[in-house]
Design a protein that fits this description.
Structural class: mainly alpha
Oligomer: single chain
Order of helices and strands: HHHHHHHH
Low-confidence stretches: 202-209
Radius of gyration: 20 Å
Number of helices: 8
Strand content: under 5%
Mean pLDDT: 91
Distance between the termini: 57 Å
Helix content: over 70%
CATH topology of the largest domain: Tetracycline Repressor, domain 2
């Protein structure tokens, strides 16, 4: 985005552009949509849209950034509820249910997310967000059990964060009956991995020197 909007009217226009772009990308696909089409849908001149965004990739980046803000808030709220490692599975179930519901309510987001993999800049931004989120989660897990190996815990959390959205996308392509076991298994697998790391750390610390 060229600049953060200050006036309420500018903020409204940015939101209108983003929502118009999301709808068009969801309906037609990222490559098929032009800045001119987005401007027309948003009710702004073709030249005027460039006052807010340099190009279509900048619009995509802002859409993804707002999604990241939402998932960061979700992560913080879930971690505040985490009082023991035994709680991890239920929190992962809650996370998958929330993200699944989010995409279900806004089907156009799937088109946006498909476009992420086609943009090197936005894909890099998404990977960095996953890394940062994994670090936050790993820190909370180590607060609960300091004996956990930091590097292995962060790596497992990175895989977990990265696979959560992929698992939800897979579930969205299925019937609700077939999707729920997939979402449940995600929670079981990664909660099991955290438990495995915990048990391994305990055994290592109890081993005679």
């Amino acid at each position: 985005m060229r600049r953060a909007p200050i006036q309420s009217r500018s903020k409204e226009m940015v939101n209108t552009i983003l929502m118009s772009a999301k709808q068009l990308i969801g309906q037609q696909g990222y490559d098929a949509v032009s800045m001119r089409e987005i401007a027309r849908e948003a009710g702004i001149s073709p030249a005027g849209i460039y006052q807010y965004f340099d190009d279509k990739n900048a619009i995509l980046a802002e859409l993804v950034s707002r999604y990241h803000e939402m998932t960061s808030l979700m992560t913080r709220e879930l971690l505040e509820r985490l009082s023991a490692l035994d709680d991890v599975e239920q929190l992962l179930r809650d996370a998958t249910a929330f993200i699944h519901g989010y995409f279900t309510q806004d089907a156009d987001l799937l088109g946006v997310w498909s476009a992420v993999m086609a943009s090197h800049t936005v894909k890099t931004m998404d990977v960095q967000h996953c890394v940062e989120t994994a670090r936050v989660i790993a820190k909370r897990l180590l607060d609960l059990q300091p004996s956990l190996n930091l590097e292995r815990t962060q790596t497992s959390c990175l895989l977990m964060v990265r696979m959560l959205t992929a698992t939800v996308h897979l579930a969205l392509s299925m019937t609700p009956k077939d999707a729920q076991p997939v979402l449940d298994e995600f929670a079981v697998v990664f909660a099991g991995r955290i438990k495995q790391l915990s048990v391994g750390a305990d055994l290592y610390n109890r081993a005679p020197s």
